[in-house]
Amino acid sequence: MLPLSVLHDMVIRARAGDDVCLHALFEMFRPLLRRAAARYARAAGYDEAYQEACAAFLHAIATHDPAAAPFPAYAASRVYGDTRTAMRRIWLAQDRTAFQRESEEGSNEDWDEEPGRRDSCRSQGLEPFHSVDQRLTLLRLAREAKLSPREGAWLALELAGLETGEMAERLGVSPATIRTWRMRALHKMRQRALEAGLSPSDL
Fold first, then answer.
1. pLDDT higher for 79 or 91?
2. Cα(2)–Cα(154) distance, integer angstroms
3. Got the DSSP string for 128-182?
4. What contacts 114, CB < 8 A, 6 or more positions away?
């Protein structure tokens, strides 16, 4: 790796429109771009992830402040962070499209909330779902994690806003059994989230 002073000078030149320096920087940091693309390729494919990594690297060149951080560290942070954000957006958009198509076909009625339950939650100032994106993320994770029917039943009632005791009563099992299903389902979904490049803050 070049001395930081030389590297920072190349960044400044590339920012000013020096194509030779820009090309040299991309060649120098190509392993970083490939690693980021490989990490988040599950969301929309390697090529899409690589393009997002390149766009993030260009943004790093345009916004780097030598006084704040060395360029290699700043570039890595931007490339991984921006690529992850872009891939998560694509991942959710794909699922939103599928969810909307199912809704138009009338095939998602099983996931609709019971009117009485929905009104009850609102009257108490509670919302069963924090956001549409969060619900779609959980549903996709559950589908890809291949939850068992019992684990899926727990998730459906959790999304509907039921407490552990209410779930146990409705399903005819003990609260301890509900907690076991919850633990297993969350473990599977967290593993799938990690594979998709998501972090706890995304959920």
1. 79
2. 55
3. S-S-HHHHHHHHHHHHHTT--HHHHHHHHHHHTT--HHHHHHHHTS-HHHHHHHH
4. 160
The CA distance from 31 to 35, in Å, is 6
In a 13 Å sphere around the CA of 64, the CA atoms on its Cβ side amount to: 29
Q: What is the pTM of this model?
A: 0.50
Q: Would you give the DSSP letter of residue 43?
A: H
Residues 9-43 as b or e (16 or more Cβ within 10 Å = b): ebbebbeeeeeebbebbeeebeebbeebbeebbbb
**Most confident region among 91-100, 109-118, 151-160 by mean pLDDT:** 151-160
CA distance 106 to 115: 17
- Residue 53 and residue 86: Cα distance in Å, rounded? 9
- Using pLDDT thresholds of 50, 70 and 90, give the confidence band for residue 132: low
Task: Say how far apart CA 137 and CA 63 lie, in whole Å.
Answer: 31
Handedness of CA 174, 178, 181, 184 (dihedral sign): negative
Q: Could you tell me the pLDDT band of residue 109, with boundaries at 50, 70 and 90?
A: very low
Is the per-residue pLDDT at 31 higher than 50?
yes
